[in-house]
Amino acid sequence: MIKNIRCKFFVLLIVVIGLAFGSTVLAETENIILESSVQNVQLPVEMLPTFTANLVLPTIEQAEAMFDLGGGVRETLHNMTRVSSGERKMSYFPSGYVIYERENISDMSELINCDLYAASEFDGSWLKDGGQEAAFMSRDDAQKLIEEYLKQYGLTGWDNNIALYYIGMDDWRWAIDYYADEGSKDVSIKDCKEIYYAVITLSYDGINFDDREYMLLNERNVFASAVYMMIDENGILDAEFFDCYGANEISQDKPLLEYDEAVDVLDGYYDGMYINRKISVCEAKFIYTAYPLSKTEYEIVPTWRFGIRGFAEGADYIREYVRIDATNGRILE
Known about the structure:
By secondary structure, the protein is of the alpha+beta class. The chain has two domains: about 30-50 and about 250-325, Lipocalin (Beta Barrel); about 55-250, no CATH class. Helices cover about 25% and strands about 35% of the residues. It has helices at about 1-25, 60-65, 105-115, 140-155, 170-180, 260-270, and strands at about 30-35, 45-50, 50-55, 75, 80-85, 90-95, 95-100, 160-165, 195-205, 205-210, 215, 220, 225-230, 235-240, 245-250, 255, 280-290, 295-310, 320-325. The protein starts with a helix and ends in an 8-residue tail after the last strand.
């Protein structure tokens, strides 16, 4: 009996030492510190393909047809074309995005996006019941309407993840009171209405696309795909399509860097960059990121994206992101 207990004790001791050693190996870096939230990140899949892609943009005629603006008044401005019919208007940017409003929704947009770096951060956390079904339309019908507009825009081939939130009048009242002290402009409750708000993200095989734009060393911006919609009792109230990528060719599945391998690359990236300072890593995500091959063509690659904490004492913000191509270990910059 005693012998068996001793045997089990030593086995347990070996397992504990092994786990501790594994954690130490991951944490023993020269130039970076991994915070507790990024100590035990796992590679979600072993292999994934890459894509070549271009930005998806319907013709202006197709966009007019989507929003029933045929015959509307066209105005050509510096970097876009505006099409309007009464209060309804569409802004068409040849650089890669389209914005439609059936009526002025600026006050509601300001309340929704207040304090957010990007609209993709909206999680419905301040809503009384974001999963509630609106009286004017079922959630299923709202989702079907969204999917139809995504199809008309030309977003096929990807998985469309639709996060659909109900925002009622009680939610707007709360937001108006809460943000009154945050420097937000005055918003009247009469300028708000009961809506569904949808945040649509693109993904492949369960891996989401990058939701942050970034700048290359040559100062070229690489923009993140983003789609947002508002729906009321009359259908689409607002629709915004930003920098959506359409796949041209897909590669064979490729093996991917494990997390500890990506950490080693990150550690080497910061070698000698700062004197007497270690970089604190507070976020690690596995995503798909666009990287330009030319002025119009992109490569969509599986990526480890690391968030680097700000340097200030007690900083709770991310100062910068570093993206590492998970197929070959290159820094995307």
